[in-house]
Amino acid sequence: MTDHRTDYYAARKHAHDHGDHVHDPHAPLNEHDNGPPSEYEIMSRAMQEILEAKGLITADEIRRRMEQFEEDFPYRGSRVVARAWVDPAFRKRLLEDGRAACIEMGIDIEAERLIAVENTPEVHNMIVCTLCSCYPRALLGMPPTWYKSRNYRSRVVFEPRSVLKEFGTELPDNVTVRVHDSNADMRYVVIPMRPKGTEGWTEEQLAEILTRDTLVGVTVPRVR
Amino acid sequence: MTDTHAHKLPSDIGGNEAGPVDTIDHGMRFWERQANALRSTLTRKGFVKTDELRRAAEELGDRYSQLHYFEITTSALRAIMIEKGHMTEAELKAKMDDIRARFNVPDEMESPIKKGKAQST
Amino acid sequence: MNEPKSHSVGKSAYAPAPGRRFEVGDRVRVKRRFPPGHRRTPTYIRGKVGEIERICGAFPNPEELAYGFDGEPKKVLYRVRFAQKEVWPRYTGPDRDLIEMEIYEHWLEPAMAGTSDEKK
Fold first, then answer.
1. Same domain assignment for residues A44 and A145
2. Nearest by CB to C62, which of A122, A177, A184?
3. Which end of chain B is more exposed for a tag (fewer CB within 10 A), N or C?
4. Of C36, C43, C66, which is closest to B2 when you measure between CB atoms?
């Protein structure tokens, strides 16, 4: 069965709660990354310094934006969907106009449109962007590395069930798998089915099981 | 499995045979998060459009399949900022040399993260 | 196509784009064209027949925005629903599986009921 490492932020929280360190050599957390900077890191820093010197941007803007992406965005989507679970009228509004529903919760998704798609006993939704990696970043943060990977982008559209299996998700043939290729101006979020065993939970508790992999549709939320 | 045609872009990969998905979310290095913030700030302030960055990524040709995600996005941003006149090749090269000196990185050094060596002009 | 009602379109509150060519439920074919340059219509869907799932509204044309133009006049964007078995000749999942995506109006043409991917 899939583990929580499918969502970096959920994994980090889990590790923190259990007193572990997230040990992933691919993602050091601080400025002093292992090894000398690559050509592209140097290029990116160079561009930033040039554009700061020219007044297009400030260091402070970059820093604040980094903070938003790290501390704020990754946690918004789970709160929105948790509310949809407890409040049927809000769910309806979310399905009709995702952007407006987020604004109700004080969340600006910074995109033209948000389309929420709901999972039912008959239908399982799954999101991909084959052409690049379009993703509702101001709702879910940066996409997980697997979402951006070529293998995911290539295969979800023609063998979704096989990809789902790699994430530990198996669906019977009487469930429709509905893939959404997020290829233009729309952005998507999945409203998973609420699992049994969560009766009476607070929105905060519900948000915790709505990890980003569940909101993209590669897994279903589990009661742990 | 899909059509190929004269103008098929390297990003147009839906339907291509490919290997298993690495299902672990590895997060981002510090420089990648900073690069993302740079791109995001520049688009929000209207200096560049997401569509332009996507097009520049598509114009990477063969290199597209050799580069990692943030190498692609950094290359695309570089191309568009030069195209729009916000910086020049010479300025960028000079600044990159300056940064290398600060980090004490010789030009020829192979970093473990480098895939294809970007030719400094 | 017969789909369960549970994933019906869901009304959109967005502007319905007056002057649009297609309505929800219309059968459409994605044009089988291969122009150069920036497009948001993946190759794998070109020539395929589906139906309009919803009208997204009108947006500046990304094919122009990509080159620094303003993308006006706006183009109508639709979500189009396809049966996976119509898209992939060797699809191994059940017939009920679907794929949906956004297609700009100028990439769509009307399709007769029962037609499949034919070169025109």
1. no
2. A184
3. C
4. C43
- Regarding whether A131 and A60 lie in a shared domain, the answer is no
Q: Give, for all 120 residues of chain C, the pLDDT tens digit.
A: 443 333 444 444 455 788 899 999 999 999 999 999 999 999 999 999 999 999 999 999 999 999 999 999 999 999 999 999 999 999 999 999 999 999 999 999 999 765 555 443
Q: Does C62 touch chain B (CB under 8 A)?
A: yes
Classify residue A200 as exposed, middle or buried by CB count within 10 Å of its CB (0-12, 13-18, 19+).
exposed
Give the Cα separation of B23 and A167 in Å (integer). 6
Of the candidate CATH numbers 2.30.30.50, 3.40.47.10, 3.40.50.300, 3.40.50.460, the domain formed by C27-110 belongs to: 2.30.30.50
- Rounded CA gap, A209 and A214, in Å? 8
A8, part of any domain: no
Q: What is the pLDDT of residues B74-119, one digit of tens each?
A: 999 999 999 999 999 999 999 999 999 988 766 555 544 444 434 4
Note the pTM of the prediction, 2 decimals: 0.90
Task: Tell whether A60 lies on the interface with B, counting CB pairs under 8 A.
Answer: no
Q: What is the ipTM of this complex?
A: 0.91
Angle at alpha carbon of residue B116, lines to A32 and B97, rounded to 5°: 55
